[in-house]
Amino acid sequence: MDDPVARAVQVTASDVLAAQARLRRYLNPTPLHYAERFGCWLKLENLQRTGSYKVRGAMNALLAARERGDTRPTIAASAGNHAQGLAWAAYRLGMPAITVMPKTAPETKVAGVAHWGATVRLHGDTYDEAKAFAADLAAQHGYRLLPAFDDPDVIAGQGTVGLELAALMPDVVLVPIGGGGLAAGVALALKTQGVKIIGAQVENVDAMARVLRGDVTLREPAATLADGVRVKEPGYLTRALLHDLLDDIVIVREAELRETLVRLALEEHVIAEGAGALALAAGRRVAGKRKCAVVSGGNLDASVLATLLQDVRPRPPRKPRRRVQEPLPAIATQGPVLDIAEARAGAARLRPAAATRIAAPTSAIACTTEDCTT
Length: 374
Known about the structure:
Belongs to the serine/threonine dehydratase family. The chain is an alpha/beta fold. It is 40% helix and 12% strand. It has a 6-stranded mixed β-sheet. Helix 2 crosses helix 7 and helix 3 (54-67) crosses helix 7 (152-158).
């Protein structure tokens, strides 16, 4: 993990705290919801501005740039959510923004970017092709290139999700991983509190998991419902942070992801996009007394949701366990039976204050654990 980028740029928990102070004026904390049938808390970033956590990093990056006096137009490549976050942040701050999105980006995300007035360029079929085109435009026109995840300001902004989770006092937090910005930021915010940070990726869309194992070979990611994490090459800064801070990565099958998304909609009434349901899908394999999954986004095309609801038939949930307390057997009296009057008199002499607690049964005593006292 010895990379020149990672060595030159440092991101710390202090940067996450500074990001929280900047964002407080613009973004409200998102709610927590306990999904009882999953046995897991949900951090509902699908209810965030623009429907995704990505607006945190984009807004923090623009505010930090303004503090440094950098007023250049900002350009970013994105599968959709980072572009929407940048467009909304630039609109609020009155700054120009250009977004490059792959032609395969969901229509709802493209429309969301255009709604906030940012310039939209569609290029390539994957995020990595859009990323290369955005870098070329930035070099030609002098724009500021804002990476979707491999940027210290972006990572610090995403880490504010973790700061909001601190009050829950979780023992395990599950985070979807594409390029690693969200996972790195949450780990910076919570790792010092002893929280386990577990990443989630989709089968054959697991570039970060392979990199952390030492396999740096670039492979074309498979098509997946979780388009937001479909990244060919993860960030250099994020991989360095996750190498030190991440506890594990769970690889989820596509069928598991689809079923989890449908169950979220039908059982918990939470609309999540593919990447948004990924952490919860991984949570089924992770034990924890108080675990929390980040629902990272909810920008799902209506046609995709309709198809999933028609095609996916989730297994019926298991019946909840009933805790039945077995009745204690009646206490059989052995030896001479103590006269009730004598018992009361003896109790009064020994413990006057407790004498009123003695009952006067007429037969063998039957009780529960809570009722019996000694």
